[in-house]
Amino acid sequence: MEERGCAVDTPASRPVARKNKSYGRSCVEAPSYFWQTPGQLTVLKLPTTRGAAKSQIITDKVDPEHIALLLRNEWKLSYVTPLHCFRHNQLSSYAKHLSSFIVAEKQQGVAVEVGMDAGFKVTFTTVPGLAESDVDAETVFIQIQSKPVFAAADAVKVVWRGWLTCVNGDPEYLRSLPADFVSLPLFFTNGPESLTTLVKSWFGRTFDANFGSLPLNSSTLNWLAALWTGCHPTCNIRYLKLAWRLQSQPVLDISYTVNPQDAWELWNSIHTPESADDQIGEKEVQAFMNGLETHFFRHFKIHLSAGRLLTVSTSLGSAHHDGKIKIGNSEYITTLLTLLTEYALFKMPT
Amino acid sequence: MALLTPFSKVPEVNTATVLLIENEEELQVKLANSIVQHEKDFNVNVRLAKKLPLPVENKEARPRLDLIVFIINLLSERSFQSAETSLAHLHSDCFLGKVCFLVTNARCGSLTQERLLSVRRLASSHQCPVLCSEHRTADGVQASAMRLLTLLKVSAGMSPLSTTALFLSSLTRCSLSSDLEEDFLQ
Predict the structure, then answer these.
(1) What residues of chain B lie within 8 A of the CB of A22, using their CB?
(2) A289: nearest CA in chain B?
């Protein structure tokens, strides 16, 4: 990247160090240096090789209760732009503000005081231990409980949950952010859409954060299928289920369940343990999916590659192309979150 | 293996032939009709195929092909794979301006980004242009037909300014930035 003669050492004038994993922007037209304004800090690309899923007993790092919170539900994914002036030590005041904001939005026109005990109770908690590298910010878990004003004290019910996280985010990108910004690019939500939009608009107002949906494209789903299959020897995945949709007349929905031992043998033949320096390449993932597709073709004479992969599920979790994800097992959660963080950072418009 | 060669036959007077290759066989027909409707100055023959190699039986009767267009639907991996395997059946002389890629559904951003990138890599390694086409509306099909006709005129040698196909291809061919190409070569 050319160096611009500049008196101030801005990130744009610092030369981007070229590493093995080269950086480029994958978009439609060839990028020219004309539109790389100084606001463009770094450009990110999805890596083509990735470390194999490592089993990690994270219960010693993270409180088991917190883990249990993350495992149970089906989450909807979004990406978040970096948050301005977000402090981890002010979470209780954020909680109060958010609850008053929600109450105010729900009853438009009536003034609401911050700290007033009204219909919603919000709690912000940090989940320490999920962040892997030292540039990752700590995970923040948000819970909204509805507390009807005239009800008994034990009638609180959690109506909405969400968490922001960053696991193994690209260190160069994270270091290049200006000092006031905290990057927690991955946002998981579970609950009614109305509350989700309220939370997002509150974040937008308070921290100038923008949200966007994160649909998982077929290559991410392929990676998940391969990574989860690779975990089979250490943790029985019990099944590998893939759901495809083919645009034919009538539309065909295919659910393809593979016996885990067979899937593991296929994966093993492609990614042999001797060759493993614990890195899985994109070509191996592609070969794995091709193997599954050709097997299907041999029996049913249907080309799965003419359709779209919609969901991948194993006992370790399930991922849907809409951006819905469910985490089944806490042992491999770090790898899953790393993959999703990378994808969120990639999708985020810089 | 019999490769399709561009210069093995004698061209006919005032005629140009274009071959549209598409695995799904849906846009081909609409595009063919549109091309034929819009060209009044010279005769256009449009041949349709699903993949290469072309059937051996027709070899003698087939006119000289001036332009070969691969239509790739970005929503289907199969479409891309089929185009890739068909490329192997073309003689290398064809790539001097007589081959072009037409992609559809490039608008579905999140679904097709990586496939579009692989099509562009394929096209740039063969030095061919990539056109994007909107196949669902009649206007879109007509626009693509006009663009293909422009390319066809040049590659059939009918351009009034004596532009050759090779020169035009050096202007229109798909290029990737060095970052992306480097990644590809790794």
Answers:
(1) 179, 182-183, 186
(2) B77
Q: Which fold has domain B15-185?
A: Rossmann fold (3.40.50)
> Closest approach of chain B CAs to the CA of A109, in angstroms?
40
CA distances from B168 to A239, B120, B159 (A): 54, 18, 11
- Chain A residue with Cα closest to B23: A306
Per domain, the residue ranges of chain B are 15-185
Question: Pairing mode, if any, of strands B99-104 and B67-73?
Answer: parallel
Instruction: Check CB contact under 8 Å for B106 and A28.
Output: yes
Whether omega for the bond prior to residue A250 falls within 30 degrees of 0, making it cis, is: yes
Asked if A24's CB is within 8 angstroms of B180's CB, the reply is yes
pLDDT digits (tens, 9 = 90+) for A50-59: 655 555 555 5
Instruction: Provide residues of B within 8 Å CB-CB of chain A.
Output: 75-79, 81, 106, 110-111, 113-114, 116-117, 175-177, 179-180, 182-183, 186
CA distance A222 to A131: 25
Residues of B in contact with A26 (CB under 8 A): 113-114, 117, 180
pLDDT digits (tens, 9 = 90+) for A103-157: 888 777 666 666 555 677 888 888 877 777 777 788 888 888 877 666 666 667 7
SS3 assignment, position A239:
coil
Contact flag A23-B179 (C-beta cutoff 8 Å): yes
Tell me A42's DSSP state: -
What local confidence, expressed as pLDDT, does residue A21 receive?
40
Partner residue opposite B114 with nearest CB, options A22, A219, A308: A219
Calculate how close chain A gets to B33, using CA atoms only, in Å: 24
Closest Cα of chain B to A256: distance in Å? 18
Per-residue pLDDT of chain B (186 residues; tens, 9 = 90+): 567 787 888 888 888 889 999 988 788 899 999 988 887 788 888 989 888 888 878 777 788 888 999 999 888 888 898 999 998 888 888 888 889 999 998 887 667 777 888 888 888 888 888 999 888 899 999 999 999 998 888 888 887 777 777 787 778 777 776 555 555 444
**Residue with the two structure tokens 């910010």:** A137
The DSSP secondary structure of chain B, one letter per residue, reads: ---B-SSSSPPPTTEEEEEEEESS-SHHHHHHHHHHHH--SSEEEEEEESSSSPPGGGTTT-----EEEEEEETT-HHHHHHHHHHHTTB-GGGGTT-EEEEEE-TT-HHHHHHHHHHHHHHHHHHT--EEEE--SSHHHHHHHHHHHHHHHHHHTT--TT---HHHHHHHH-----HHHHHHHH-
Taking the Cβ of residue A56 and every Cβ of chain B, the question of whether any pair is shorter than 8 Å is answered with no
Helix axes A218-230, A260-270, angle to 10 degrees: 100
Q: Testing the interface with A: which of B131, B177, B185, B186 to mutate, by most A Cβ within 10 A? A: B177
Question: How much helix, strand and coil, in percent to the nearest 5, is found in chain A?
Answer: 35, 25, 45
Determine, for residues B78 and A24 on separate chains, whether the beta-carbon distance falls below 8 Å: no
